[in-house]
Write a structure and sequence with these properties.
By secondary structure, the protein is α/β, with parallel strands linked by helices. It folds into two domains: 3-119, Rossmann fold (3-Layer(aba) Sandwich); 128-222, Arc Repressor Mutant, subunit A (Orthogonal Bundle), CATH 1.10.10.10. It is built from eight helices and twelve strands. It has helices spanning 11-23, 34-42, 60-68, 84-92, 105-119, 153-164, 172-180, 190-202, and strands at residues 3-7, 27-31, 48-52, 75-80, 97-101, 128-130, 133-136, 141-144, 147-148, 169-171, 212-215, 219-222. The strands form three sheets. Strands 2-1-3-4-5 form a five-stranded parallel beta sheet, sandwiched between helices. The protein has a four-stranded antiparallel beta sheet with strand order 6-7-8-9, covered by helices on one side. The chain is elongated and about 55 Å long. The relative contact order is 0.10.
């Protein structure tokens, strides 16, 4: 069974979400403070972390920072509704997705399953490439000029979708479906944040252009090399 770690100081909410996740077939561990959350996440045996941003002591953002320093474990952030700063900061630090609070348990489960689908090993082409940029779908790993890129699972999923369509514009809706495993939500800025992070990690082409071009009003295009 998939084991999910809930890190939230709201005991009643954590109990409610934990019970719902259990009924949906997940095994659930719960931590009610950031310190315990970091320790449990890094102890092993966890498949995904659901992490509240607003917690006393060590905040969810700091918990994410500490997890990412040692692990690529998928992390889903629970953010205050309308708080774009927490969402963007979490994504920049390597969160795989976010859900605004208050959220329904059904929505939370749908987001968890979307993350697990895109991170699960499946039969895929051995290798895809565009010039010196190579992605290995089976390993979910990307290399540029022989150097492994440190990508989150969301960043890798989007980059793979762009490499598959190198030279062609991919709409944000298609990127969300192919790279994140879920429909694009209205006003969702997560793809833009992820693409910005991927650009930084890829650097520039020899002619000074970005590897990923923005096509305004449509989506993004990976330059074919």
């Amino acid at each position: 069974m998939t084991r999910v770690l809930l890190v939230d100081d709201d005991v009643d909410l954590a109990d409610m979400l934990g019970e719902y996740l259990g009924n949906e077939g997940f095994e659930v561990d719960v931590a009610h403070d950031g310190q315990a959350g970091v320790a449990r996440a890094l102890a092993g045996g966890i498949d995904l972390v659901v992490l509240d941003v607003m917690m006393p002591g060590i905040s969810g953002v700091e918990v994410l920072r500490r997890i990412r320093a040692e692990s690529r474990l998928p992390v889903l952030m629970l953010t205050a509704r309308g708080d774009d700063l927490d969402k963007v900061l979490g994504l920049e630090l390597g969160a795989d997705d976010y859900v605004p609070k208050p959220c329904t348990p059904r929505e939370l489960v749908a987001r968890i399953r979307a993350i697990l689908r895109r991170t699960a090993p499946v039969e895929r082409p051995a290798m895809l490439s565009s010039g010196p940029l190579v992605v290995w779908p089976e390993k979910r790993q990307a290399e540029l000029a022989g150097q492994v890129l440190a990508l989150t699972s969301a960043e890798y999923g989007l980059l793979e979708a762009l490499v598959r369509n190198a030279g062609h514009v991919v709409s944000k809706a298609d990127l969300s479906e192919q790279g994140l495993g879920r429909p694009l939500a209205r006003f969702d800025r997560s793809i833009d944040v992820h693409v910005s992070a991927i650009r930084q990690k890829l650097g520039q082409l020899a002619d000074g252009r970005s590897w990923i071009q923005t096509v305004r009003g449509v989506g993004y295009q990976l330059v074919r090399e």
